[in-house]
Specification:
This protein is an alpha+beta fold and about 110 residues long. About 20% of the residues lie in helices and about 40% in strands. Strands 1, 2, 3, 4, 5 and 6 form a six-stranded antiparallel sheet that branches.
């Protein structure tokens, strides 16, 4: 969806988000587009979160979105930054708006580009 096409995701467009998909796992990036009808999102400057630890004991995506990753950042397994990734998940998606600080903690924990 582009802005205005579907207000379900409209407020997240252009903001850092964490997306959980049963098919593609958990990603963090800046939401470019989303389509609720096809359960498709496109993220830019995206990272896949392979193994992460939260600051509280919930282990939830919501805690990461609100508070970022638990220190030390070296304990997390984050994929390399992708310019863009499309996630299609027919069973549904969870999208949580992330704080800028949370996004930056994930970026800081990712492997550095060579």
């Amino acid at each position: 969806m582009s802005k205005g096409t579907n207000d379900v995701f409209g407020k997240f467009t252009g903001k850092p988000v964490i997306v959980r998909s049963t098919v593609a796992g958990v990603h963090c990036g800046i939401l470019e587009t989303a389509d609720a009808a096809s359960c498709t999102v496109v993220l830019k400057d995206a990272y896949r979160l392979w193994e992460v630890f939260t600051r509280d004991r919930t282990g939830s995506m919501s805690d990461i979105a609100a508070n970022g990753l638990k220190e030390p950042l070296s304990q997390h397994s984050i994929g390399a930054r992708l310019d863009s990734v499309a996630i299609v998940n027919p069973a549904g998606l969870e999208i949580a708006e992330a704080t800028r600080a949370a996004y930056e903690s994930i970026a800081a924990a990712a492997p550095k580009e060579a």
